[in-house]
Specification:
The complex is a heterodimer.
Chain A (H helix, E strand, L loop, with lengths): L1 H30 L4 E5 L20 H10 L3 E15 L4 E9 L1 H8 L5 E4 L10 E5 H7 L6 E5 L5 E10 L4 H4 L3 E4 H7 L8 E6 L6 H9 L3 E5 H4 L1 H39 L1 H9 L4 H35 L20 H27 L5 H4 L2
Chain B lengths: L6 E10 L5 E11 L4 E6 L5 H8 L7 E6 L2 E2 L5 H11 E4 L11 H12 L4 H14 L15 H13 L5 E5 L7 H17 L3 E5 L3 H4 L4 E6 L2 E4 L1
Parallel strand pairs in B: 3-8, 3-9, 6-7, 7-8
Antiparallel strand pairs in B: 1-2, 1-4, 4-5, 9-10
Helix pairs in contact in B: 3-4, 3-5, 5-6
The chains are: A alpha+beta, B alpha/beta.
Chain lengths: 377, 227
């Protein structure tokens, strides 16, 4: 019974914890980044002889927008003007990129206002020379809300911007690089009005990327990158953790199963005479199998129930344990998933293992020859 | 054709091949009528237990014919024989073989619940009545290990009687008991055979028992003889 208890409990804790980590990472990374990114296909024949800055504007913008809007899996989309730039603060200079966005559309994508640490969110875009920075980037540049920042873009134009907000997505790969400026301001700085370099799309169901295929099919001049392409390492990491979690959990249940098998086998040997007596007074093989299966089912049920309770308790304690993470992820405690389905799975696997482990000793018990009673005399 | 015998055994032989070929039973004949009390005695290794287990339908690997209650035993399936034993044969062993986990009443009810799962209340009453007749009325809910050897053997007899069998087979029923208890158990078996017309076959070493029975056989080297 203890074996089942530990098997089921460990299974639940492992699965809760691992899927908790996976879900947390997914949420952290994918909530802050677009599910689909549309960009213009680079044309090798289009050569800029004098090495001028040339940002490839999206062609067929109307057609793209109609196609996107027609999808029922669409949550929101936002047009982007993305340009490389150099940031110059009082202390440091850094290369980076500017995201020119339309405030209302971008807000629908990420709900940035919730992630603002200081200053204002997109409301500050009423003033055209404002910039919002990720928290890690702001730290590197040693600027705060209210400070000024000089920007130089590759065509030589420069502009002085005011930092009107600092945000955090809780994940350094975003907080380190992302900046927001009003699209109109960036377009005029680039001297190209109506320029759109990318479109970012958020989907209702991230796993259904049929929109990508319909876009690629209808419009030949664009590239579409989905979240799996952009986050290969994380997707692969999730897969590895999944495989690890399930295989370790199943081995634990297997070990517990063997424990039960041994105990039941011992019981059969111990009860050989009782089994023989039962058989002489008219109990059939079936009855004996039934008696032993009931016994292991009982062990399995009680063990699984206790295992679920223990598993929940341990998971709960893990979930309130403070976690001092490095700056890759910003989190207070260990992420743990409490989905009901894992408890049901753990319990039913526990019970199934027990029944299987009980079946073979039961079979053995049923074939005890009643004649052993004389032989032993 | 219906036989007038409860049990009819013709030319029963059995050979063991391990470790060497050995005829443990040689052409034995035995007939048992209603109300007969038969004892079989003989030295250890003479084959009386082997014969008893063939007669009890527990061993079907033998030569010859065995008919119990008009049923030819040899060709039946194991599950049929289980059911047949449950309804027709009661067993009493040397070392009582009661289930230690159960109380007295439940031990007696074991064979009854096997064949009749519906009338539990009625069966319980029947078992209590039976145990009362055997002088165990105040021990119904005792765990069996708290009873003395003689009491345990009486519980075993009650268990053998619960399904009203045609035949009771007792293997050394008094082997573990003292004089007084042996006498009591033997008288009990005699009473059962004479009053309920149940046939009783007893294998025993005890001269007090085989000298006092109407029909007594002796087994020597696999051959059964009236003595």
């Amino acid at each position: 019974m203890l074996g089942v208890l530990f098997g089921v409990a460990t299974f639940i804790v492992m699965v809760n914890f691992m899927t908790g980590v996976n879900d947390f990472l997914d949420a952290a990374v994918f909530e802050g980044s677009p599910d689909l990114i549309i960009s213009q296909k680079q044309d090798k024949n289009q050569v800029s002889e004098d090495l001028d800055l040339k940002l490839s504007s999206l062609e067929n913008l109307d057609k793209i927008e109609t196609t996107i809007s027609a999808s029922n899996n669409l949550k929101a989309y936002s047009k982007q003007v993305i340009s490389p730039a150099i940031f110059i603060s009082k202390h440091v200079q850094l290369p980076g990129a500017l995201n020119g966005v339309y405030a209302s559309a971008e807000q629908k994508l990420y709900d940035l206002d919730k992630r603002i640490l200081s200053g204002e969110g997109f409301n500050s875009f009423i003033e055209s020379n404002s910039i919002i920075l990720g928290v890690s980037l702001a730290e590197k540049l040693m600027v705060n809300t209210g400070d000024s920042l000089k920007i130089i873009i590759p065509n030589g134009n420069e502009i002085k911007l005011k930092v009107t907000g600092v945000f955090s997505f809780g994940i350094t790969t975003i907080d380190n690089v992302r900046t927001y400026v009003p699209a109109k301001m960036l377009q005029s700085l680039l001297e190209e009005n109506e320029l759109t370099t990318n479109i970012h799309i958020k989907l209702k169901d991230r796993n259904d990327i049929s929109l990508k295929h319909s876009l690629l099919e209808k419009i030949k001049t664009i590239n579409v990158e989905d979240w799996k392409d952009s986050n290969r390492t994380i997707v692969a990491g999730n897969k590895v953790r999944d495989v690890l979690t399930w295989s370790v959990s199943f081995s634990l249940l297997l070990v517990a199963g063997f424990g039960i098998y041994n105990i039941m086998n011992g019981t059969v040997i111990q009860k050989k005479k009782d089994i023989a007596v039962l058989k002489t007074i008219g109990y059939t093989k079936k009855d004996v199998v039934y008696i032993f299966l009931i016994q292991s089912l009982f062990i399995g049920l009680i063990g699984a129930l206790l295992g679920v309770i223990t598993g929940y308790a341990i998971s709960y304690f893990i979930s309130i344990t403070p976690l001092k993470a490095n700056d890759f992820i910003i989190v207070d405690t260990y992420p743990v998933n409490f989905k009901m389905i894992y408890y049901i799975l753990g319990a039913s696997f526990g019970i199934i293992t027990t029944i299987l482990a009980g079946y073979f000793p039961a079979k053995k018990a049923s074939s005890v020859d009643p004649v052993i009673i004389i032989k032993d005399l | 054709m219906l036989s007038k015998y409860i049990l009819e055994a013709r030319n029963i032989s059995k050979e063991f091949y391990l470790p060497v070929k050995h005829n443990i039973l040689k052409n034995n004949n035995l007939v048992v009528k209603q109300g007969d009390l038969i004892t079989i005695h003989g030295e250890s290794g003479s084959g009386k237990s082997t014969l008893l287990y063939i007669l009890a339908t527990l061993d079907t690997q033998f030569e010859g014919d065995l008919i119990i209650n008009n049923t030819i035993i040899k060709t039946q399936s194991q599950s049929f024989l289980s059911d047949f034993r449950n309804k027709n044969i009661g067993f009493v062993y040397q070392s009582h073989y009661l289930l230690q986990e159960f109380n007295v009443l439940h031990n007696v009810l074991l064979p009854a619940f096997k064949s009749d799962k519906k009338n539990k209340e009625q069966l319980r009453e029947k078992a209590s009545k039976l145990l009362t007749e055997l002088g165990l009325s105040s021990y119904l809910n005792y765990p069996v290990y708290k009873l003395s050897g003689g009491q345990q053997q009486r519980v075993a007899i009650a268990r053998a009687l619960i399904n009203n069998p045609k035949l009771i087979i007792a293997d050394e029923p008094t082997g573990n008991l003292d004089q007084k208890n042996s006498q009591m158990i033997f008288e009990l078996l005699q009473k059962i055979s004479s009053e309920q017309k149940t046939a009783v076959i007893i294998a025993t070493h005890d001269p007090k028992i085989y000298n006092n029975s109407n029909i007594s056989y002796e087994m020597t080297d696999g051959v059964l003889r009236l003595s």
